[in-house]
Specification:
The protein is globular. It contains 12 helices and 8 strands. By secondary structure, the chain is α/β, with parallel strands linked by helices.
Length: about 260
Amino acid sequence: MSNEISEIFKNKKILIAYLTAGDPSLKDTEEFIVALAENGADLIEIGIPFSDPVAEGEVIQNAMARALIKKINLDNIFDMVVRLKKRTQVPLTFMTYLNPLLTYVYDNFFKKCKETGISAVIIPDMPFEEQDEVKEFADKYGVGIITLIAPTSNERIETIAKSAKGFIYLVSSLGVTGVRAKITTDIKGMAEKIKKFTDTPVAVGFGISTAEQAKEMTKYADGVIIGSAIVKIIEQYKENSAPKLAQYISSIKNAMRK
């Protein structure tokens, strides 16, 4: 797996930003990623639009629907990644579902990830026990598979943590993605449990939207992941979102540094 991800977690708390490719256009997505990277995002997750995104709440579902209307496909997204790699050094990952990978064919998909510079892939609808069929191709091309651990993972935490690479995506809340006023899960307890079994960094996602939440979560975890709050800004400001995203991500990063 690319060392890019391991490197960014060294000696600092990491801010990971998510946005949906093609909302409102791929050209805009490219500009938004550059703005996020220049203003504090240490790693960026690019969501691949899919018609049945089971882990996503309404905000990201709507963004994917808007992108699909534009007929955005994986080849277009890979072309955008090639352009981005000339503009930013921030590691890029994909957040996707199994179906688009199956359609594209696993070998082709991971070969293309390697060629374009995608460091890792997150697949929320792939059960941990079934990841070998995908991992074979990811390993072949040196692309990471990011493991998710949820509040319901209890007895499986040790097994999942010991095999994790890159970082562990700790799901903060049951249910789908979306902005939450309060994170009620015992993140401290879960992070401590995970860290008993692995040195792989832990980043908390699902529901984090404010500077206060980000600062609180990074007391226990190595990073935070923000998605729906970013996508909401894009929904509101559309092609004019870059300055708003820069301002928002910068305020989160500043709070994390304090």
